[in-house]
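Quick sanity check, HTH cro/C1-type domain-containing protein:
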Amino acid sequence: MTSDKKKVFKDTDNHELNQSILNEIQDNIKQVIRDKLPHYFLSEQTFYRAAADNSELFDAIFNEVLYSTISSLAAAKYQIDENTLPHLYNIINKDLEGCRDGQKSSLFTSQPFEAIPTAALMLSSINSQIKKQEFWHKNEEGIAVAQHRAKGNPQNYIEHYISTPGDVTLLPWNEAQQIIDKFGFNSVKLHLIFAAYTMEQEKPWESLFTIKGSELIEKIGWDKRTNLPKHQKLLEIAKTAFALDCLLVKTVWIEGRNRKGGINASTPVGRMWNITIVPYGQVNLSGNIEEPLEVQIIIQPGAWTKYFLNRAGAESREALFQFGYLAQKVLEIDPYHEELTLRLAIYLTLDSRVRLDGNYRVQELIEIALPKTELDKALCDRMKAFKLKRRWDKALDQLLNKLNWQIAFDPETYPELLRPGCKQKQPKGYFNKLLNARLTIKPPHPIPELIASKVKPKLSQLQPKIKDTTSEDIKLTGSQVREARIAKGWPQTKLASFLSVSQKFISLVERGDRPLSPQQSAYVRILLDIKF
């Protein structure tokens, strides 16, 4: 390109470059890993052993990729000399600091729950992983596809496909099955963790964050497993993340009604997650790392987040921002011994935003949690019905007593005779009565209160203990908010995200320059455990 076709860079051109950089940075990171990390493995083992205990590796990769990307883009479009390039790097690096915020913090450090997306797309992607036989099929073109249609509006649907990493070519059935076979409860747990980290990003579709494999091992409860050494756990984490990188999504979705006719959250085919896996440790003679010391998972949320997890877009009625809360203990449920418990907990976590009253019929939950064939067999076989009820009772007992979920049985349709723990002989026809029984089941406190206060922001919707409190009684001072926030270890941005306000607003509140509304005060009291 000749110099007359280039233009001199100005600070005002910065925004134009940012989007191009974000679009290219994922591919460039992979290229750096492919080209340069083998040399580091061979010559700088001490560096990687140290990196296993901190986040310097990600910063080193990110900075090198960012600088090289800016250099290539700027050189192709702008007339920039060597003295100007560092200036441009500093400007854009400052603007892109949010891309690395995710790897600086960890989940569940200050409370036993985290915000998580709960749009229909999340449920469809999870069902594609743990109800594989029911959801995946071969379409007319021979492509593997999993489809979810909205019950209220069948014209709304979500489709999932399988591709190879770094490509969006849809795989045929036989090839896709090799990836689908890797899906399961482990991939669902990683999926939920990635989604919780994504909630912390201001613009997830423009963000990158990284998570250590050792942290994921702890979060999903594998640190308690003694039958596998750490390097095998890390390799399993890497394989599972690889499978998630192959999961694609397409949505045709219009929700709500307004002057524009509804929010159109339709998306083209794209990745759920762009994932780069960075193992490091001792390299063998073949150039492979058979026993990694650590694995870094670098995640870039897919474009679906712009349509389904966009706070600003939701306020302008152009996108959705639907979320609930994930209890930490859900991730620690053992799928081998507590499978139905985990299935119920995952579904109820996502559905609690919609079903605020928590009222369900037993058959409804069994049909959602288990393959339909299991219920059909139980209806035809008395012994299978007995075993299914025993599994159901065990799941409810674990949710209630082990995980502190809130369960109440309807006295008319769910008598003591049918409830968990009853030792009496079951009467004839008990199984059909159980299926028609009703119960109320909600996640542990304070998740239902937080969800209710977000959906219906009225003081009476919060905790019963403050239901009749006057507005004067629940007002908080700025110093009270600041002290409680610091004691909980929250930055101002985290509290702001829960309240759907800006960080500047929280700063003004804590300085005493802006008051909280009565509803906001009540909500902050719940979040920060402020008691009078």
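Posting the structure with no commentary besides this: The radius of gyration is 25 Å.
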